[in-house]
Write a structure and sequence with these properties.
Helix content is 33%, strand content 15%. It has 7 helices and 9 strands; from the N terminus they run E-H-E-E-E-E-E-H-E-H-H-E-E-H-H-H. Strand 6, helix 2 and strand 7 form a beta-alpha-beta unit. Helix 1 runs parallel beside helix 5, helix 2 packs across helix 3 and helix 6 crosses helix 7. It starts with 9 loop residues before the first strand and ends with a helix. The model has no long low-confidence stretch (mean pLDDT 96).
Length: 205
């Protein structure tokens, strides 16, 4: 997919202790496919990831509007489980979903969305079912044992599935589909060399 002038950007939430490894496949592939990635933090002050990377957010969360975005990505972070600092990001996710704009959450961010009630009526996954059960949410019957799940505009995945998470993001935004999407996943998840030719033929490398 080539860059399109009218395409809305993808917003990547960034905050202290964010898990660097969880969203890299998604954002890198989107950027290579012509999507603008804009970072949004609690403010525009720099944050520090689990890996020690300092990130300067492009804009504060309060300034992010669903109508100006194609997707909100929420990575995991220790802060999701140690207090309410990141609760505003879960509330922003609700705002996006209510507006019909997709959200993708991985690892600890799924617990944040569970606390916000956003998983009560959607199929979803996470690290393990009892991790989400500890939040006291009402959606336990909708938990799915899968690498990643998309339902009603929301992508969820556990911390060990960054490639599956990216696959669902690419699917939701229509970056790749069918055999090309399958080949992308097989190449980056399974190191399947036969997938390379499919991607090369499709101009997806």
């Amino acid at each position: 997919m080539n860059a399109t002038a009218g395409r809305k950007p993808v917003h990547l939430a960034v905050y202290d202790t964010l898990a660097d490894w969880e969203t890299g496949h998604a954002t890198a592939q989107l950027a290579r496919a012509g999507w603008e990635i804009r970072t949004t933090g609690p403010s525009t002050a720099s944050v520090t990831s689990t890996g020690g990377l300092r990130v300067q957010p492009d804009l504060a969360l309060a300034d992010v509007r669903p109508q100006d975005s194609a997707l909100l990505i929420l990575p995991g972070a220790d802060l999701w489980d140690t207090g309410t600092d990141l609760a505003p990001f879960a509330r922003k996710a609700r705002e996006f979903l209510d507006a019909g704009v997709p959200v993708a959450a991985i690892c600890g961010a799924t617990a944040g969305l569970a606390r916000e009630g956003l998983l009560d009526d959607r199929d979803h996954t996470s690290a393990v079912s009892f991790y989400l059960a500890a939040t006291g949410y009402a959606g336990g019957e909708r938990y799915v044992e899968a690498d990643a799940v998309t339902d009603a505009g929301l992508v969820t995945a556990g911390p060990t599935e960054p490639v599956a998470f990216a696959r669902e993001v690419l699917r939701v935004l229509g970056v790749y589909e069918g055999e090309v999407l399958d080949a992308w996943y097989r190449l980056f998840h399974d190191s399947d060399a036969t997938a390379y030719g499919v991607l090369e033929k499709a101009g997806a490398l």
